[in-house]
Amino acid sequence: METIRTKCLIIGSGPAGYTAAIYTSRANLSPVMYVGHQPGGQLTTTTEIENFPGYHNGITGSEMMDDLHKQATRFGADVRNGIITEVDFSKRPFTAKADDGIEIVADTVIISTGATARYLGLSDEDKYKGLGVSACATCDGFFYRGKKVAVVGGGDTACEEALYLSNIAAKVYMIVRKDFLRASKVMQRRVFEKENIEVLFNTVTSGLFGEDGLEGATLTEFMGTDKEKTYSLPVDGFFLAIGHTPNTDLFKGQIALDEAGYIITEAHTSLTNVPGVFAAGDVADPRYRQAITAAGSGCKAALDAERYLTELG
Ligand code: NDP
């Protein structure tokens, strides 16, 4: 087995990972980055990014990731296609194994494996991804100005997305499978006070339809014992807000995770409970989940790794 030695191994290649790669390579840490299952991360699945400062005409997720890749490799980051399949944080230096058969021995590790938005599992969701189906209202809401949209879910995220969309779209339906919202009372109140949000309780989605793009959803409402009504709801946008799953399976038992599986970091830093292992981006952030906040936390993780190595001497 080939072994490579690095001062910094970065796992995952979204805006957090790439920013960490840019900072650590400029600091001469010669980082090695494994891009993971979805090179470029979640952004590559969105259409246009219009809220990342500096891109005044907007940019596609793939273009932004290409730019970040070029910027990181320009400073010498060793970016590798592949997946880390095993890590050992129990002793220093840390070790990791990749699916290309390489073992990496690293003084520090930055975890930026992101989170995956949950989908309902309908085959139609894939078909209309980028053509009406989205898991991010702040990313894609703008394209539905004056149109009709639906948001699936009844938690705080769903309420937040519905409220955000209600300022853009003409009409927002919330599709909630139970007869109540799980969201905090304050969010519920805001939703109920908005005239153009309609909450469809006891309702599930069984399919989506449309010729060249999404035109609507097929819904079933359950109305008590054995009574149900299936109907078509015309919408131009269909937003999933049923939660995210942090990509932390690989790290279970190695570092501290919260009950939802997110990596726990020390307040205002990227430090995990294992000195020398840092976390950046959505993998440690159930709250903001933005490209810009992920990039900022990638920078923090790089500075924390650099400081750790300096203190180690
Ligand atoms: P939650 O797990 O809180 O809510 C998920 C919602 O999606 C629930 O209404 C759930 O329904 C529904 N759901 C799950 N699976 C399905 C499915 N297959 N079909 C239909 N509906 C489904 O996730 P959130 O992302 O909303 O929130 C995560 C955490 O982040 C929470 O602790 C939340 O409070 C917090 N948060 C806080 C914010 C803030 O403070 N501003 C903003 C956003 C999130 P059911 O209730 O039936 O299970």
Explain what this protein looks like in three dimensions.
With 313 residues, this protein is an alpha/beta fold. It is built from seven helices and 19 strands. NADPH dihydro-nicotinamide-adenine-dinucleotide phosphate binds next to α5.
Summarize the SSE layout with pairings.
Blueprint: E1 3-11, H1 15-26, E2 32-34, E3 48-49, E4 59-60, H2 61-74, E5 78-80, E6 84-88, E7 94-98, E8 103-111, E9 115-117, H3 123-127, E10 133-134, H4 137-140, E11 148-152, H5 156-166, E12 171-175, H6 185-193, E13 197-200, E14 203-209, E15 216-222, E16 228-234, E17 237-240, E18 244-246, E19 277-279, H7 291-312
Helix pairs in contact: 1-2, 1-7, 5-6
The structure holds NADPH dihydro-nicotinamide-adenine-dinucleotide phosphate (NDP).
NADPH dihydro-nicotinamide-adenine-dinucleotide phosphate binds at residues 120, 152-158, 160, 177-178, 182, 242-243, 286.
Distance between the termini: 29 Å
Mean pLDDT across all residues, rounded?
95
Oligomer: single chain
- Secondary-structure-derived class: alpha/beta
Number of strands: 19
Biggest sheet descriptor: 7 strands, mixed
